[in-house]
Each structure stands twice: as structure tokens, then as C-alpha cells.
Amino acid sequence: MFHMSLTGLVDSFIFRRSAFSVQRSAFGVRRSAFAFAFCLALRAHAQEHLSTAWSTYVGHDSDNDAVHAAAVDSATNSFLAGRLGSLGLHNNGGDDFWCSGYATGFILKASPDGALLWARDLDACDAINDRLLALALSPARLFAAGYTEGSPSDTDTYALIAALDPADGALLWADTSIGHEAGTNGFNAVAAAPDGSVYAVGHTTLSNQTCNVPGYTVGATRYGTNLIGGLDALVVKYAADGAVLWRHYLGGVNADAARAVAVAPDGAVYIAGETRSPDWTSLASGTASATNAAGFLVKLTAAGAHVWSALLTGNGHDAVHALRADPASAALFLGGATASADFLAAAPHLNSHAGATDGFVARVTDTNTAFRVDWCRFVGGSAADQLNALDLLSDGRLAAGGTTASGGWFTPSPGSQPFQGVQDGFAALFNATNGAPSWATCLGGANADQLAALARAPHGFITAGTTFSPDWVGGGFWDEWTKDPDYGPFSFGFAALWQPGAPIAPAFTAEPADRTVQEGASVTFSAAATGTAPLFYRWQRNGAPLAGATATNLTFTAAYADDGATYACTVSNLAGTATSRAALLTVIPMGTLTVTLTPADAVARGARWRLDGVSPWLPSGTATNLPAGSYTVGFNALAGWLAPAPLAGVEVAHAATLALQAAYTPILPEADRAVAGTNVTLTVRAPAGLVSWSLTETLPPGLTPFAITGGGVWNGTARTLTFSGAEAVTNTLAYSVACATSGLYTVTGTLAVPHVSGTVPVAGISTILNAKLVRAISGTNVVITVLAAGAWPVTEIIPAGLTPSAITGGAFNSYDDGQVFWYVAAGPAVLSYTASGEPGSYALSGYSNAEPIFGDSVLVIPGAEVPPPDILAFAPAAPGLFTLTFTSVVDQAYAVLTNAAPGGSNGWAACIAPVAGAAGTTQVQVPAAPPRLFYRVQTLAP
Question: Which one of 248, 256, 461, 505 counts the least CB within 10 Å of its CB?
Fold first, then answer.
């Protein structure tokens, strides 16, 4: 039974769905006497105007995020704290914030205009799955309080308090010592004292804490110095440096928790909350039970001594959530929730309980030994309502806020918002002296929303809480709803800064302008407006709302023809609506042109193309989007190359792709080689347009050049002879070679230019003959020339099958045993003979004085001429066959060809295997396969 009470008490505090937070009341919405009185009071203050300076979402895209606490400094900088289930904060004006380690609690500072100045977590003090529930400001400190888990795998909680530098969020000190394994401990509220110390109140299951207070006695029981029940309320006073000055337990045998704390000017401290324990307060004031909670109010001195304590009760469930002390008087202001129609029955009531659970606000005066209730006002309607926060404003009025599931219990004031349905947050202003209401508004959207915190500002107040509703904030550091609906309904935290003044209707400071773009290009329309935040933008296309277009800019990443229309922006807020001028978007139809250039050498050396002689030069293969139409494609001049002729009348069609190719022609030199004996002449013709050229002759081993002209350079290692020249010049180069031995030497040469890869071969004669004896064959006549002086015995070997005749030359000659012999007494000399024999090819060889005879070496005796075949007859044979008769020579091979037309040159093909001819005539059968019905016979080479 105790465990159930404890769980219910802690859960209701940490703003999960409590007994007070329902979506729709079974009682419906009815105008109660309270609602009527509240509405009359608001009408009496119709001149009241408040509006939001800014509002913002707090959190990131996944999981539930919440703001539980808020504070504002004297410069209107706002501080927020809570829990980030998403582990991050979106930020319009800079980098997003992400939690570190296992921390989930956060503290942030926002500027007076709602910009995020800094954000941090408490990972530095080993916070784990922590939740920050309270904030308090002193002149030099920002205090944050809540709870943290003991480890990532445990659910036991430890009370957590931290002191930070409000300027930059630097951590000054922190305490997580109050807690134990399987325990439930936490701070729910915090208040700074005038002397720099700080009070933190909450709940604990940890016994035997060092208290340093005397405690007090009710009946026979001593309270204050140790744990009485399973879960007690707890008050801890810390020095400015974080040292614990004293602790004080509050409560009895059942579950109790402190939820609010306020400090008097003399340092005395007031604590309020919820109790399920009877008989532990010093003043007779009703009772509580494990199943029926009561509110409580306690006063302790600055030293922790008990002054008085009392229950605040009725016949139902009651709790105090908020507490403020008026520094100018002995007045206290309490707020909370009650299900009791007779709550504080003996007190003056300004209205009646409206049914279900109502919020309440009460003014209490401390009489030193006790207190009196000056007045009590219920807040809400027929469904579930509760008051969670209150504060005294700089103008002396009391501001209160909470959560309502009731509609119709107040009349919206100028700039305020009516009930949106399901569950809304609300804020209201009261006369602090007599409790008269002067202004009220709901906060939130179409889904469930909850106000958890309210704090005074120099000129107004801030509200904060949790929202499941999109599209109702604006002007802060994040105003876009980005929760992913695919993973469930998740909440953002929210905050809104309220300031006096009538809401200002929106007015445009910048309107969208007409735009003309090419199809596929990006285009943006922009609008900006002034007016009371939040401002809601909506773009229209041809007068109709454009789905999803709710930002100040409307962007088409790629505009197409069907996007051509008029676009206007509507901006609205609570005070009115304004519509911008309709801007015209003109989209020029586009096509795609791609030009590919060749060869790769020209492309690598800067070949480019462009349109109509004016566009930028484009590399090969570039695809460019163009308005549909006719163009001229031109090509740039490139040294060493002839550019393609311009392509005129190139038609680019809408939504079509046209691919063209163009080739650059290289400007190349030419070279010929002439050889006379061992003298070589090179002629190089270099056309205009060349920058330079280089000619390299490669000589085989055995040749050494000399008498080099034209600036040639010999490299004996590489065996190359290199010449160079320039454009538009015909160069004649020469060199001679010394030959180590007789022989036929082959030289090679190439021309290279800097703008083309590869080389051009040198044409002409490529062999140099260094010989003393040279053979020349003409038909069957053979001439051997002896080129050198001296005596030369020359032998020519005649292959079998040949017979020499008409042998001439030499001092004498002879033929014997397959050899012709000449003796030359003194060269030079010319020797000759004629050969005869069977048709065929014969290899000749000869020598003299160990020198071979160079030159021609193959002699051919032609055979008898084969007459061409002639078709004599062509007659049908068996089905599908014809008999073809043609003239032939015995054993000669013939091919029979067929074609579809007699004049065709490419269609002739063999229709049967090659045929061996008979003597005189040959007959063959050929297939009749239309349309190939023309035939001819062809002699095949042996």
C-alpha cells in the first residue's frame, strides 16, 4: 500500500500524466458560478493587454522533451531547465546542442529576444538519466535542482542540485549525495536566500541524514530529525559554496513530498507540498490519509527550527504545487490542485469549486505563530484543472499558470487565446491584494499541452512546459515541429515570454518579387513581416494554399514549366492577417545540349566549345541546360590543331537531350628519307600552325653518323640522331654513315610534336646498303656488280632446277656442278647470266673473298598462263539444283560464286566447295536459292 502511494506521489510531481491531467472531462463543459464570476471580473479589466515577445520549442526530433523550470534575470535573459528524451536541442541561430554521456537533464540561457546563448548538461557531475525540475537565481548564482539515477541500469534516484555561473553556465558546484540503492530521492523546488545560501526541497527515502536542527514534537513523536515514513518530504539548506548547513525531514508515516519553497526577507523559509500522513503538523488543520492526500504548509527559521506547520485540506485529494512570499509584507501566495468542494472551508472564498479537480490560488498571512487565509480562489472549469506555478510580478500583481482540460471558464482578453481542446496550459493575472482576476489566456495547440513553470520578468513573465501540438510558437530559437509521427506522439518542451502591450497585427516589411528562371534552376520567394509573435506564414499558389509551405521562404529546388504561377504569402497572428502581393514565376522551357570533343590529346590541351560566340568556353562532354531554340556551336583555337568548323542551326528542343561530337585535326609535319649509298638526306615539311617539331633517327649497331647537318645531335648511348625545327619551314637535313661491316642496315625515324601524343614515322627509304658485291634480278636475268677495286673470285650457287646460260663478265667464267664462277682481275666489274627451269621460286646465293653478295636473292620462273573459265551451259537438274558447265584446266582449283544481282560487288559468295578442274570442261551442281540466282566461276591461286 505504501509503495502505491509513493509511486503515485512521485509520478504526479515529475509531470507524467497525473490524476489531474485528463484529455476530456466526462462532465463536459458547463458554465459554473465560478466561471461566470471569473468572466465578469475579466470584463472589468478589458483594457488589459499582454502578448508574447517570443515563444519557442525546446528539444529535438525524437522521444519526449520537456521544460519543467524557468527563471528570468534583471536583463530579461531567460533560463530554462528540464529533460531531453531526444538528447538534443535544435537551434535556428547556430549549432544544435547534444547531451553528453548518460545525461538527459539540461539548462539553457536565452537572450531577451529568444536567441539561444548557451546550453549545457550535468554530465560533469556524473548525472545519469537526470531530470531538472527547478531553477532559482541569486545575484551571482543560478541554481538547478532535480534528481539523477544511480547508474544506467538502475532506477534508484538521488537528489541533485547544482550551482552555475549564469553568465556562461560554468559549473561551480554540485551535490548528489542524498540517495541510496533502491531509493527514491529528489529535489522538486529551490529558492535562493538573501545571504547567498539556497534551499532545496523534495522527497527522500534515505534515513539517518545529518540534520543539525532541533526538530519538533507533536504528541509523543519527534519530527524533523529522521525519516518517519517510507517517503518523507525533505528540506536542505546549502551555503553559497555548496556546503550543507542543515537538513529537516517533514511528514509522517505515509508518503510525503515537498513541492514548493519560498524565502522570507529575514531568511525564514516556507515549504509546501503534498502529504498522505496524519498527525505530524503543529496546527490543528484537518487530516490526511494514505488514500486521500492533503496539502501542507510549514515555516522554519533560517537556522532550521520549526515555527509552525499545518495541513490544507478538504474532503477530496488536495496538493500545493507553488508558493511565493511577498517580500514587502507577511503575505504568502499558494497554488495547487484540489478535488475538494470544501477546500479550506473556513477561509473566505472568492468563487465556488467548479467540479472535478480545480486549480486554486490563495493568499495567506503569516501571524508568526500561525497563519490566516485571506482569500481563496478556484481556477478552472468542470474538467480536470490544476495550478502548477505562480509568481509576483514587478507591478505587484500575481501571475499564475497551470493546466486545464476545461473550456469556457474565462473570457479571452485582447491578445489571449481561447481553449484549444483536449488539454491546454493557461496563465492568469490576479490582484494580489483581493484576488480579482484581470487577464487570462490558454497556451498550446490542438493536442495535449501543459504549463509547468512561470517566473517573473522585469516587464512581464515567462511560461514554460510541455506540448504535443505543432505550429503555435514563433520568434524563439526553434519554431519548427520536427517530431517524427512514425515513432509515436512525442512532445517538445516550450517557453514563451509575455510582456505588456496590445498584440500588433502583422505587416509586411518585404514582399515576394516576380522571378524568371530557366527550367531546372532553383528559385526562392521571400517574405518578412513584423507583428506580435508568433507569426504564422502560409504560401498560396494562384490563390490556393500550398501544402507544407509555412516558412518565410518558398523555395523550388528545381523549377519546371508547371510551377509557373503566381505566389503570395499570408501571415497571421492573434491580432490579424496580412497578404502579400502575388509574385509571378516564369519558367523558361529548357533542353539539354552535350558536345563531346575528340581526340583526347586535343581535349587534354584545352579544346573547348561555346554557344553563339558569347557564352563561356565549356569542356568536352559538358551537359548544359538551354532555353529551347536554335544555336551556333563554336570551337576555340588550339595551337597545333585545326578546330572543327562551327555548327550552325543546332536545334535544342524542350525536355530533349541533343548530343553532338566534333573532332579537332592535329597539324602534323611530314618527313621523307632518301639514301644514296651511305649518304642520307631527310626532308621535313612543317606546315603553319605548328609550334615546334622534333625528328629522331634511330641507327642500328654498326652505323656511326658523321657529316651531320641541320643541327642534328648524336647520342651514342641511345643510338639516336635528333633534329628540331619550327613551323612553316621546309628543312633539309643530311648525314653520312660509316659502316663497321658490309651489310644491309635498317634505320627508323619519327617526328614528334608537343601537342599530340605519339609520333609520325619518317617515310621513304629505310635501308642503307654497304656492300662490295650486289645482285639485281630482272625476270630470269641476273646481274652481279662488283663495286670494289681489286681481284675478286666470285661464286654464284645455282639451286637445283635452274640452268644458267649466257654467262658474261670477268677475266674468265665457267659453270660447273651447280656453280657459276667468275674471276675479276680488277674491279669494279659487271657479271651476268640468264636462268631457265621449271616454273617456281628459287633462292640464289653467292660470295667472294668471304663477302656475301647482297641485293636480290629470289628468282621466279612463271608457269603457263591459266585461261579464265567460261560458263558454257546452265540447266535445271534435280529439284532445287542446277547443272553448271564451264571451261577448265586439269587440276586447277575453281570457286563457284552466286549473288542476288549480276552487278553487285559485295554480295558474291561461294555456294559450293572449291572444285578441281577437269581437262577441257567441268560440270557441277549448284543450289537454286532465290534471290541468289546469278552465278560465276573464279580461278583460285595455287
Answer: 505
